[in-house]
């Protein structure tokens, strides 16, 4: 079976770079991406047509059918009843996960207007969560056919034991992190020196 582009990059360049930087003795200690979870919520008052629309759009982006999540308890202030649909989620692993990550990093994120990079903050355990406000940045979504913009969360779960390891793993895979002011100043000076 052919490897997805990002999976090949991980095996050929990321693993040796991480091994050299952090000095792992065992190849199984090297961080890797375990799974990617996409989820999108909607209001409790959403009708069946909207639920079906969100399901279809997330299915196009992920490449597999999402699961509809339902409320576990009733909350009268939110007009929420137990068992009412409140969102969809899909978990990607293996080749589908690497395929989605390739499309996210190479195509979707650079399509965001005035994109300057994503935040470098992780959750303290090497996992990264990214919020996307408009789902039409993905090439699978036709702008003409979409009635509303959907927001979604992309949770990248890694086997890294610290934020530094997880950040370095994603950086080597091509995650476009936002530059700090010092890095931006150095890049501007290098560009001015080259010109």
Give the secondary structure arrangement, pairings included:
Layout: H1 5-22, E1 33-41, H2 48-62, E2 67-70, E3 85-92, H3 94-108, E4 128-132, E5 152-158, H4 163-173, H5 181-194
Antiparallel strand pairs: 1-3, 1-5, 2-3, 4-5
Helix pairs in contact: 1-4
Give a concise summary.
By secondary structure, the chain is of the alpha+beta class. It contains 5 helices and 5 strands, in the order αβαββαββαα. The mean pLDDT is 85.
The radius of gyration is 19 Å
Total helical elements: 5
Please name the CATH architecture. 2-Layer Sandwich
CATH class: Alpha Beta
State the strand order across the main sheet: 2-3-1-5-4
Would you identify the CATH H-level superfamily? Ribosomal protein L5
What structural category characterises the helix and strand content?
alpha+beta
Named CATH topology: 50s Ribosomal Protein L5, Chain: A
Largest sheet: 5 strands, antiparallel
Q: Provide the number of structural domains.
A: 1
Kindly state the mean pLDDT as a whole number?
A: 85
State the helicity in percent bands. Answer: 25-40%
Describe the structure.
This protein has 195 residues and is an alpha+beta fold. It has a single domain (5-194), classed as 50s Ribosomal Protein L5, Chain: A. It has helices spanning 5-22, 48-62, 94-108, 163-173, 181-194; strands spanning 33-41, 67-70, 85-92, 128-132, 152-158. It has a five-stranded antiparallel beta sheet. The chain is globular and about 55 Å long.
Summary tags:
single chain, 195 residues, alpha+beta, 50s Ribosomal Protein L5, Chain: A, five-stranded antiparallel sheet, 5 helices, 5 strands, 37% helix, globular
């Amino acid at each position: 079976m052919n490897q997805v582009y990002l999976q090949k990059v991980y095996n050929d360049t990321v693993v040796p770079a991480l091994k050299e930087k952090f000095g792992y003795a065992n190849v199984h200690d090297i961080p890797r991406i375990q799974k990617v979870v996409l989820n999108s919520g909607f209001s409790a008052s959403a009708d069946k047509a909207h639920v079906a629309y969100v399901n279809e759009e997330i299915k196009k982006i992920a490449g597999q059918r999402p699961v509809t999540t339902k409320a576990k308890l009733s909350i009268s202030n939110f007009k929420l009843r137990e068992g009412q649909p409140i969102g969809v989620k899909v978990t990607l692993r293996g080749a589908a996960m690497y395929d989605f990550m390739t499309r996210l990093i190479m195509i979707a994120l650079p399509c965001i207007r005035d994109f300057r990079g994503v935040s470098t903050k992780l959750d303290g355990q090497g996992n990264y969560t990214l919020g996307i406000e408009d789902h039409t940045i993905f090439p699978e979504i036709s702008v003409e056919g979409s009635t509303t913009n959907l927001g979604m969360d992309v949770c990248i779960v890694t086997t890294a034991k610290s934020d530094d390891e997880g950040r370095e793993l994603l950086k080597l895979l091509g995650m476009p992190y936002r530059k700090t002011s010092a890095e931006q100043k150095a890049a501007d000076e290098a560009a001015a020196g080259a010109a």
